[in-house]
Amino acid sequence: MALKQILAVMCLTVPMLAWAENSIVGQWAMPVPNNPQCSELYSFDADGQFAVSSDQERVTGRYDIQATPALPQMNMAFVSDNNMTDCFGNTVDQTGQKDAHYLKWDNENMVQFCSDVTGQNCPVKLYRQ
């Protein structure tokens, strides 16, 4: 009976441990393909707050990460946006918007934001700074 309990605990914790090896906390950059002189800079704090700077745009918000059977899901809620131009030439106010991404780790210094849990559509790559 003790062996069954140990195996059950291992099955529940191993995926979480594998995910915990990689942390989004820190400074990240996303190069902009059609604008090589501009990069979006992301800062994720351990307390669940984030900030993004992209050209003149400054955005802040809150995030959380939840384990799923496949890829961890990152939920982002945008709290403020200065509504200035970003690296893509957009001036969209993201205040109040919510996004969900699945995190696909290539290694501890590179993570992709995927739109699907299978990790097949991952348009955003962030590099640890």
Automatic annotation (TrEMBL):
<feature type="signal peptide">
    <location>
        <begin position="1"/>
        <end position="20"/>
    </location>
</feature>
<keyword id="KW-0732">Signal</keyword>
<protein>
    <recommendedName>
        <fullName>Lipoprotein</fullName>
    </recommendedName>
</protein>
